DUF2000 domain-containing protein (Bacteroides fragilis str. 3998T(B)3), 88 residues
Amino acid sequence: MGITQLPIPILGASQEKIKELRNYFHSLEIEDLVLVDFSTIAQQSRTYDEYEREMYSANEDDLHYVGIGICAEKKAINKATGSLSLIR
């Protein structure tokens, strides 16, 4: 048995598109928005303390996103991600 029985689509996007989506969803006033971004800093950090230290000292240009998890109303997600292709 897995963590969830709900389908989770995985869509492909460039680092720039992921950053654009992140900024877009942050600009919306969606009450139940859950946004989790994954950066190269997170990938390269060996401990949470190291990650926290690197994130604290990073500026926006240092953040290169490799993924993003978005949980929000379906309409908002579809509007923002409708042009992205499904990864198979």
Summary: The longest helix spans residues 15-27. The chain has a mean pLDDT of 90. Residues 11-82 form one domain. The CA atoms of residues 6 and 71 lie 12 Å apart.
